[in-house]
Amino acid sequence: MSNETERIDAVNRFKTLDAGINNDLNDLVNLIASICNVPVALVSLIDDDMQWFKAAIGTGGLTCNERDLSFCQETIQQSDVLVVKDATQDSRFAKLPIVAGPPNIKFYAGAPLITFDGHAVGTLCVLDVKPMELTPMQVNAIKVLSKQVLTLIELNWSMQSLVEQSFTAQKQSRVIEDSELKLKAVFESSKDIHLLIGRKMEVLAFNKAAQTYVKDHYQKDIRIGSHLLNISNQAFTDELSEHISKALNGEVVNVEWLIAPESPTSCWLSVRFEPVSNDNGAVTSVAINATDITTQKLHTEQIELQNAALQRIATIQSHELRKPVASLLGLIDLVKMDDSLNYAHSPYFSHIEASVKELDAKIRGIVHESESTVEQTTQIIPELKGAC
User: Fold this and answer.
1) Please, are residues 353 and 335 in contact by the beta-carbon 8 Å criterion?
2) I want to staple 87 with a disulfide (CB 3.0 to 4.6 A). Which of 65, 99, 204, 249 is the partner?
3) CB within 8 A of 335, min separation 6: which ones?
4) End position of a domain, from candidates 161, 182, 201
C-alpha cells in the first residue's frame, strides 16, 4: 500500500464530482444494497480525518463521519473485501459509537477503492443492524462493483482534467495569438527591413518594408521560399553569402552598405546579420535587419564639409589676415624705438597703435572660436557614425 501523504493527495483528486457521476454512483449503491439485501450502503472517500459520503442509501441524510469512528478506516488498510459478521463480537469495532449505540450496527462488509497507482482512496460498503453472512456471490458483487465505482470516479476526474487542460490550452492559445498579432503589427509597421533566412538561403519570413524595398530597387517580388541571392543586390552576392555563413556559425555581423551609388534610389543601409537558435541551441536561421541611414550619412558628410571649410577659414584668418596686422605692429615698434621721429609722441600715432592692437585681438578671438568649432564638430562625427 502507498504512504499516507500520497494517498491523501489521491483522495483530493476525487473530492469534487460532477452531478451526473453522483447519480451513477447512487445507482450502484442501490444495486449493491439490493444484492446484499441490506438497508445501508454507501460510497465514501477517506482523507486524513474524515469519511465523506459521495453516494449513500439508508444514512438518514448524513454526508460524513469521523474517520476514526468508521469501519472503513480498517478497510482501506487492505486490498480485499472486509467482512464483519457481528461487530459487537469484534474487538476492533465493538466500541465504535455506531455499534455500541444507535443505530447499533452489527454487520459490515466493504471493499477498498484502489486507484490505478495503488492508493486506497475510499470504500464501497454495506451495513445492517443485525448480524449476517454474505454468500460468495454477494462478496464478489461488492468487489466487482467497487471497481466500477472507482472507474466512474477516475473517469470523472480524467474528464475534469481534460476540460481544465483544454480551457488552459485555449487560454494560452489566445494569449499566444494576441502576442503574435501584436508582434506582427510591430513587425509589419516597422520602417526597417526585416528578413528571416534559412540555412539554404531561403526566405522564411519578411515584413512589408522588405517587400517594398525589393520591389522598388530590384523590381522583384519577394515570397516565402525565395532564394535570397535572387532578390538581392548582385554586387553584394559574395559578401552577402559570407556574412550569412558567419551568422549560421553563431557570429553577429554588422556592416554598412552604399546601395546603387549612381542611381536616383541610392541609399546607405546599416545591416545586421544575427543567428537565430532553437531550444537546443542549434542555429537554424539568420535574422537580417537593415536600417536606412542615408540621412545620418548625409548629415555626417555635411558636418565634415563644414569642418573642412572652418579649417580653411581658420587658416586664412590665422595667416593671411594676421600677416599685415603683424607687420603694422612691427612698424609701430620700430617708430617708437627711433628717437629722431616725433610720431611716437603724436596723439594720432597712439590712436593708430590702439586700433591695430584691437584688430589683432579680434582676429585672435575669431581664430580661437573657429578652432573650438572645428574641435567640437570633430567630436560629433564619430557619435553620428556610431548612431548609424
Assistant:
1) no
2) 99
3) 341, 343, 344, 349
4) 161
The closest of 362, 201, 370, 161 to 288, measured between CA atoms, is: 201
Specify the number of domains making up the chain: 3
CB atoms within 10 A of CB 35: 18
Domain hosting 325: range is 297-387
Nearest to 331 by CA among 317, 345, 352, 315: 352
pLDDT digits (tens, 9 = 90+) for 331-375: 776 666 666 666 556 666 677 767 777 777 777 777 667 666 656
What band does 248 get if pLDDT is binned at 50, 70 and 90? very high
Q: Model confidence over 181-190: pLDDT tens digits?
A: 666 665 667 7
pTM over 0.70, yes/no: no
Residues 6+ apart with CB under 8 A from 131: 85, 86, 106, 107
Reading the block at residue 59, the C-alpha cell is 444514512
Q: Is the CB of residue 124 less than 8 Å from the CB of residue 108? A: no
